[in-house]
Amino acid sequence: MDMGETNAFFFGKLEEEKFVDGILKDIENSHSKPMDQWENSEVLEFILNEISMKHNKTDCNNHLERFQCISGKRSEKLWEFLLHLLRDNKTCPQLIKWENFEEGTFRFVQSDKVARLWGNRKKNENMTYEKFSRAMRYYYKSEVLLPVPGRRLVYKFGPQAKGWKNISPIS
C-alpha cells in the first residue's frame, strides 16, 4: 500500500468514525431512556432509521431489506421499482396508476417511458417495453406480479409481493 492509498484508507476510516459518533450522539439526544437500557431491536431500528435518512433510502420494508438498500448490497427488483413509481406523485398517475389499490391492480399509462426509466436504472439504454414486459413475466411463477386476464397493460401484485399494502395510494 503506497502513501496515497494509506491516507485514503485512514481518511475513510476517520469519516466512518465521525459518522458513527454522530449517530451515537443522535441516539443520546433523541431517546427517553439511557442507551444502555435499550433493547437490541431499539438500537437496530434507530441506527437503520438514521442511516436510511442520511442516504435517502426510506422506502425499504424490513431490517434486512433496509440494510441491503442502504449498503447497496442488493439491487432493486423490478416489482419494487414499479411500487416506487406508484408511490411517487411525479410518476403516478402520469406514467403508471392504480386501477384498484385494494386488489393491487395497476395499469401502465405510458409503458414505453416506464421501460426506459427501468433501463436507465439498470444502465441499459436499449430497454423497450417488450424487453421490460419479458422481465415482468419472470415474476408470474413466483406470484410476485400477475397479469390481469383480458386487460392490456394491467397487472397486479401477487401474494408474494411484500409491502405494497402498507402504503397510501396516490390517486
TrEMBL record:
Localization per record: Nucleus
Record bears the keyword Ribosomal protein: no
Xref: InterPro entries: Ets_dom, ETS_fam, WH-like_DNA-bd_sf, WH_DNA-bd_sf
MF terms (GO), sorted A to Z: DNA-binding transcription factor activity, RNA polymerase II-specific; sequence-specific DNA binding
GO annotation, biological process: cell differentiation
Gene3D superfamilies: Winged helix-like DNA-binding domain superfamily/Winged helix DNA-binding domain
GO CC field: nucleus
Keywords associated with the record: DNA-binding, Nucleus
Coiled coil, from the record: none
Domain ETS as annotated: residue spans: 76-158
UniProt record similarity statement: Belongs to the ETS family.
Name this polypeptide is given: ETS-likeous factor-like
Organism of origin: Asbolus verrucosus
